[in-house]
Design a protein that fits this description.
It is a single chain. The protein is α/β, with parallel strands linked by helices. Helix content is about 40%, strand content about 20%. The protein has 15 helices and 20 strands. The strands form five sheets. A seven-stranded mixed β-sheet has the order 14-15-16-13-12-17-18, sandwiched between helices. Strands 9-8-7-10-11-19 form a six-stranded mixed β-sheet, with helices on both faces. A three-stranded antiparallel β-sheet has the order 5-6-20, with no helix packed on it. Helix 3 (about 75-95) runs antiparallel to helix 6 (about 165-180). Bound molecules: 1,4-dihydronicotinamide adenine dinucleotide and magnesium ion (MG).
Amino acid sequence: MATVTEPRRETQRTFQTQLLIDGKFVDSRSGKTFPTVNPATEEVIAEVAEGDAADIDLAAKAARKAFDSGPWSKMDARDRTRLINRLADLIEDNIDELAELEVLDNGKPLAEARNGDLPMVVDVFRYYAGWADKIHGQTIPVRGNNFTYTRREPLGVAGQIIPWNFPMMMVAWKWAPALAAGCTIVLKPAEQTPLTALRMGELAMEAGFPNGVINIVNGFGETAGASLVAHPLVDKIAFTGEGNTAKIIMRSAAETMKRITFELGGKSPNIVFADADIEKAVDGALLGIYLNQGQCCCAGSRLFVQEEVHDQFVNRLAAKVQARKLGDPFDLKTQQGPQIDKNQFDRIMGYIAKGKEQGARVVTGGERHGDKGFFIKPTIFADVKDDMDIARDEIFGPVLSVIKFKEVEEAVTRANTTDFGLAAAVWTRDIAKAHSIAHRLRAGTVWINCYDVFDAAAPFGGFKTSGIGRELGEKALDNYTELKTVTVSLD
Ligand code: NAI
Ligand code: MG
């Protein structure tokens, strides 16, 4: 992987802060703005245009026009490939700047943004660029003298609402399959992290996407987000975020029968058997929960450890966790930055307090780090019981609940005792046991002897309340296509 050059803290540079509508960056109709804050310093980075229903309406109309009658609607699929690849090239050309902007707005460690998020962003665009001219229908042998075939047509205008935990990655996961399929887009970035999406909007314009194909409306969920969901010219909503928000979106989307895909939360079980490679499993448990300050939908937040190895496992893990370097996310040695904002910070601290009250044992952490910025020490709770709040709810922070177990059956049953079903992991050297458990875990992704291994080609999404549909891979193209059946009489 590429190494990072010494970061330039570009706090003085000017940022793109407007809305992207029909190929132009514009102020919001109301003229309102809102601040975006650096979570490491609590300082305002910039004032950003605040879109609401009026701006969403303009963006939806622009996207509709681009879809129905613009050059995009007549473009050969292979020319879409070329444009998406050009965007990927521009992102790569500006990779250091984009990584630094992500760190400024989101607080994640620079080494992670530069060597994790950004390379995957580029990879996702390139992967879907390759799909644009390979979205095939079928010919179908029907009765009678008829010839029947299917076409997979672009779905139309895609409304996309994304969260703040992986701001650029979420843009890539949403834009790339939609563009490959031939859809047009209205994106609503998270209010906490609008800056990198806007920069990607600039790069998309530079790449040459026709006006109206990609529109970006910053703003809040209850205003900009809700009007996007309600808008009659929008055909589909792709959303990543909280389950309760998804329910609100689903109800509203029902009015216009919009297609929906959801990628929601989790309380993913990470199951370590005594016969595992313990050192590797310790590293996997650490990555599984603390990556991105614990702000991962698939965080391995319930760590089930088999009785025989439980105590030594917790000790080894605690030693590594205590050695983690918290602080300035621009420092290349930093492994953990701040939580995204005060809301999330308070919510996580609330769960830590509940864990203590309900009798779980703090092995390490359990408190704030420093007094500026939203930093929380990486926390391990042991002696966690299945019915404690910290074992049931998504905390979305650096808080691990360790749960002891004895038998295979018990581990599977307890792991599945949750309404979530996004991800799970199993650590064992017994390959038959690993696969048989993987098949029985009710989760959209199961990692065996690894954690957080993502690939543009591998579908990702949730069982149960963790989501509807899959992102990434060939599967995500279904989210942005409609199937049409054409029958020709041969008589
Ligand atoms: P959220 O679901 O409220 O926000 C995500 C996106 O949805 C943002 O762009 C927001 O503006 C938008 N939104 C909010 N309300 C909306 C509405 N009524 N209509 C349309 N769009 C709306 O998530 P939030 O409040 O940022 O975080 C709360 C919790 O959600 C976190 O603590 C975490 O548990 C979970 N979460 C899960 C994520 C995941 O990757 N699955 C990502 C972010 C949060
Ligand atoms: Mg919310």
